[in-house]
Amino acid sequence: MRIVLVTGMSGAGKSVVIRLLEDIGYYCVDNLPLRFLLDVALHLDRAGHPDLAVSIDARSEAELSELPVLLKGLREGGHNIKTLYLTASDSALVKRYSETRRRHPLAQRLQRKDVAREPTLLESIQAERELLAPLVGLGHSIDTSDLHPNTLRHWVREFVAAPRANLTLSFESFAFKDGIPVAADLVFDVRNLPNPFYDAALRPLTGLDAPVADYLAAAAGVTTMIADIGGFIERWLPGYLADHRHYLTVAVGCTGGQHRSPYVVEQLARRFRGSEHVVVRHRAIQRQAH
Fold it and tell me: Which residues of the chain fall below pLDDT 50?
């Protein structure tokens, strides 16, 4: 079976992901207690369902420590397991809960421990982040703080289609003014490169457009920096593979995330395609498109 385990912070987008996976043919189970995971997988496998998606959150806190052992057992049984961890900044989560007026799923449980008062929303979020911390490194992380739901859906489609054997090398461009992506493993700053923003003809374009690409390809230092970043990744990639990493996110940032970082990301992706499964994401450009 292909099994996708979706976990992470409440409010970070697990429902969006589960609905998408259901739409593309996965048998989806939301908030499944971990003790039933093996039984559900076995039953569906026998029933001829090749694809299973399971959402697990902090309400399974008593069993979370058992998850690595369960995943190991499923992999040893020949199943293709992918784990997706969704996260977001405290401020983004507080805003989402304020907009929906929903109660945090841990609030009632935390109140039982301190009957004198109900925990604040921020206290509930921070408690959940602490509970889920051991799960962060089990799979691929996506920071949804500033993502449009359609962008998240697109990224998840790419994630579930990734080849099983290869490391997934994700290149993301971003704007430093919006903050560094939480899920980034390696971060490179290209704000020192010549900026097409100051050319009136190039300002409305992006690093994906030919005139901007031509400008940067001819600008001093750009090719050298791309070669240096690519060389660093090439040099250390075997170490990540030896550490049994299946996912590596490389974030490249400039001031607005529109010109320099998208161009650099595209050049790096072109360099590594063919050796690893490469995913390209442009946070600022995709946000503007929506």
Answer: 162-165
